[in-house]
Amino acid sequence: MPVYNKLVRDKIPQIIEASGQPFRTRILDAEEYREALRTKLREEAEEYFQAEDSREALEELADMLEVIRALAEVHGADGEELEALRAKKAEARGGFQDRVYLIDAADA
Q1: Residue 34: which pLDDT band, with cuts at 50, 70 and 90?
Q2: For the chain, what are the domain ranges?
Q3: Counting CB atoms within 10 angstroms of each CB, which of 2, 22, 40, 73 has the fewest?
Q4: DSSP structure class, residue 22
Q5: 69-84 burial, b if ≥16 CB within 10 A, otherwise e?
Q6: pLDDT digits (tens, 9 = 90+) for 55-91
């Protein structure tokens, strides 16, 4: 039986159970959960960089977004609060749509 030792989506145990395969799970404590989410974000980012087409890239971005929302909750915010913070930063400093690439700047 393969050993995974990783955080999985909530419905994965039911999916495995429906296939009739044996498995084991456990519930992580708060600190383990935070660390597992951080690891999962790295894993999803690596999968994004390995994506071979836009469809695959979007799938991985969706996975990253799910992990980011869970991390926001770990840090005491919900998706709406995270979006509000993102919008506030975008209003103050802009986004990335203009494709500006800073080459250099004098120290102030």
Answers
A1: very high
A2: 12-80
A3: 2
A4: -
A5: ebbbeeeeeeeeebee
A6: 999 999 999 999 999 999 999 999 999 999 999 999 9
